[in-house]
């Protein structure tokens, strides 16, 4: 009974180390992980970094209090520096045609360097942002190489916001806790964050950009990986691979693979609609956009409505 009270959300900041109860380290480790993937407060605090230019100290303190057992303040800042690098890279101007002069080359290298610091907060989304840079600069084969690597990381033992832990996850956590790995190490290894594109991001694929659309894109990384694969193969005239990637995109949507929440599912259907539209299947694209709107009808947060016009 006391464990239920002690680990409840109502007293998530309760420091159990001040008591002499014999709590196993693994129990504390799993409890911290559950807070990361299931806490709505942590999710909101995490998303706030996408709309503020500097680290929010209040949110940082909130998260530190919640992750007190296996996440030091130093690790917490390192995690969010990695997250913030994505936002910073999306502000840098990029020319669609790669590196025609010294200035463009300098901007490209700066963006590349920033994105390489963006791969430490989760297992997939940071790499996909790097693939987006290669796509935007027409380095499609490099982008596909990164995409394949990212997809290889999207295994069933991965965690994401809103997930309920399964036996497979407990096995992975047992191994990590026995190795005495920190939560920050855990995040980089088995956590899959969603892919974020800020408003006016220079890394957003042109196919996603819409005139008059002023919202952000929060996209499940599994869906974005296959969508970006479709785009790369399309520009390389790889018809068969393009079709295969569309089928893979349909599959991850049908299974809602490593995605949670209606907004993420709706965004995935929007990506499918764009891919089908690009491939010339207009009727199927329309159905995908309608499905997206049926799931998430708020037109201020769902670009599918404008794509139907």
From TrEMBL:
Pfam family, one: TPR_8
Coiled coil ranges: none
Domain of life: Eukaryota
TPR repeats by residue range: 266-299
Entry keyword set: TPR repeat
UniProt keyword Secreted present: no
InterPro entries reported for this sequence: TPR-like_helical_dom_sf, TPR_rpt
Protein name, UniProt field: Uncharacterized protein
Record organism: Mytilus galloprovincialis (Mediterranean mussel)
